[in-house]
Amino acid sequence: MGCAGSSQSKGDDSPKKIRKPKPWKHTQPITRAQLNQMREEFWDTAPHYGGRKEIWDALKGAAEVELTLAQAIVDSAGVIVASADLTTCYDERGAKYELPNYVLSEPTNLTQES
């Protein structure tokens, strides 16, 4: 059955279904290597800004897989999804986790390596 907060009998109580983020454009054309570097830097430093490491790890896992598996990851980690594209989430203690678009999806101006 679960706790009272996990009830899905009302539309308000059901977990928010995650969706693909809206398309975004980097300030200048960016290569795959540059995008990967930005992502690595974010994930390496994110836990230092607060929140729990296991939640950051779950969010990283969710950001790197397809939506169905991402939904299962955030649900099992107890992540509260405030924005369906995962840009704003909370843990059960109320800590806020903000993810930039570049860790969630590809930019529209991704270029080939030269």
Automatic annotation (TrEMBL):
Region of interest called Disordered, as start-end residue ranges on this chain: 1-31
Recorded superkingdom: Eukaryota
InterPro entries: DC-UbP/UBTD2_N (IPR032752), DC-UbP/UBTD2_N_sf (IPR038169), UBTD1/2 (IPR039869)
Xref: Pfam families: UBD (PF16455)
Domain DC-UbP/UBTD2 N-terminal per the UniProt entry, residue ranges: 16-112
PANTHER family: UBIQUITIN DOMAIN CONTAINING 1 PROTEIN-RELATED
Record-given protein name: DC-UbP/UBTD2 N-terminal domain-containing protein
